[in-house]
Amino acid sequence: MEKTYNNKAWFFVLPVLLLVLFSAAIPLMTVVNYSVQDTFGNNEFFWAGTGWFTEILNSDRFWAALQRNLLFSVIILALEIPLGIFIALNMPKKGLGVPVCLVLMALPLLIPWNVVGTIWQVFGRVDIGLLGRTLAILGIDYNYVRDPIDAWVTVIVMDVWHWTSLVVLLCYAGLVSIPDAYYQAAKIDGASRWSVFRFIQLPKMKRVLLIAVLLRFMDSFMIYTEPFVVTGGGPGNSTTFLSIDLVKMAVGQFDLGPAAAMSIIYFLIILLMSWIFYTVMTSSDKDA
Amino acid sequence: MARITLDHIRHAYGANPVADSDYALREVHHEWNDGGAYALLGPSGCGKTTLLNIISGLLQPSHGRILFDGNDVTEVSTQGRNIAQVFQFPVIYDTMTVYDNLAFPLRNRKVPEAEVDKRVRDMLGIIDLADWADRKARGLTADQKQKISLGRGLVRNDVNAILFDEPLTVIDPHMKWVLRSQLKRIHKQFGFTMVYVTHDQTEALTFADKVVVMYEGEIVQIGTPAELFEKPSHTFVGYFIGSPGMNVLPAQLNERSVVVGSQRMDLNVPPQTKPGDRIELGIRPEFIHLGREGMPVKISRIEDIGRRRIVRAEFEGKPLAIVADENTEIPAEARVSFDPAGINIYANSWRVGGEA
């Protein structure tokens, strides 16, 4: 058949290009536009140069929120990844237990984020919440509205409850793809339980773990809804993570310029961190 | 190194086996002599792998006991039995180097590092991977991976037995031959009991002193390659060993003779049978003489396979394969005679007697 050479094929990718343009590129450029200008309303804009960026990078408020957010991400990764691997290793591999476990694991993932927040907000209330009331009866002084530590614990436990399942499901998928012969060979070779994990299961889970770490890092670094519903960023600013701070600045105070500058810095940080994670975790593949 | 006794082993994968057909292994009662080289031969799904996994302890048999040198090891773990097993598809630890892969079973058993190094270096030479020692095992070819799997089994030279589960399936033909002769050499050198599962009869016959033929969860014959060829004790063995397989013809016994269709052949020793048994006559294509004398056949096809020819014919309404030299003249009005030494009589598929 004669091949046709012309540029009509571009029409096939046009819809998706338009979609990306309107959903990502144009909004992003608007943000860039705001970040270098100042406004007093009335649609009047003045050139501000890199002023907003300098202001954000010199503000204690930004660095405090960034620190809180990094700490939060580190804690939930340190909890969710090992816990997820542990649960996946102990899930049944066949029989009736498999669908039951999978459904149970998938449930938290199916709940809308603000509903998760509401559930925990009520759950932890000292006056009516199951958790808060029980702890009060047991004589434990727990109040996430007053105490920053309690607020952190609540937000972290909530995130672990909500997202560990994702790690479990990804790891489980990696585990079930290991042929039986590997376990049999390991038995023949006299491998310990730890060796089986270290040399068979972990290498096979490596790829899915990379995805799990990336997803959990990005999501936790952008977390907004759940802590906003539970603590509203408080008490004080103790659970004000970057995105909560950003929304306060943009919507609450209507500081469009600084908010836009912060958005761009925020975006670049996530991009950079994800790239670092990816590079570090795939580097060992290359020496093969 | 040990003598391995399988004491009335039965195994079913399902929970509540009732009928014989529920069993993957119907009943195996057999002894593997210390230092013997055995081949376990049979079609796919006849229970070879099941039997192997029971010996190595990867599977617990539903019934029966396993003894090593007379000691009951049925409840002993795989590790405690000290058995090496090589699987059909290569298993390698791909985050380790080739060297570490081979050292792994030794290090797990706390062998001193100096001894590990010596044995691993030896093994690297045997499997011809010395140049690859420090490479990651990932990204090697299937051949090389399987050689590592073999090496991990052979590097432990104190094992009770080495079990091979069709280890050369993924290896290409030339390499197969090389590895097989190396295995034989290693066997002579160390003298451990070897059980080699295969469904390839050439592999079984060249490798083993004794061949164990399995069919539908049972051992149907144990013998030297010559015995399997000359006196197959089950029609399945006759069919499975040899190319083409044995001709099996429905027959009747009549006093001291056997009758196939309208043809009658005399027997020296009448076989013991019960009335109602299904009688068959088995004769290998190699024991049939084609010429102008004897019983009439109708030739349908001649296959030339180099130095020999396989003649496909019809005898008393049944297909008959005959092996003839390439020089044999094949007359138009062909007749055949059966070598009395090659005649085997079967009752209900089991051999009850023959001429010789």
TrEMBL record, chain A:
> What's one Pfam family the UniProt record gives for this protein?
BPD_transp_1
Q: Which domain of life is it from?
A: Bacteria
GO annotations under biological process? transmembrane transport
* Ranges that cross the membrane: 12-36, 70-89, 96-115, 160-183, 208-225, 256-278
Read off the Gene3D superfamilies from this record.
Answer: MetI-like
Q: Where can this protein be found? A: Cell membrane
Q: Name one GO cellular component term.
A: plasma membrane
Keywords of the record, alphabetical order, are: Membrane, Transmembrane, Transmembrane helix, Transport
How is this protein situated with respect to the membrane?
Multi-pass membrane protein
**Which protein family is it in?**
Belongs to the binding-protein-dependent transport system permease family.
Q: What is this protein called?
A: Glycerol transport system permease protein
Organism encoding this protein: Rhizobium soli
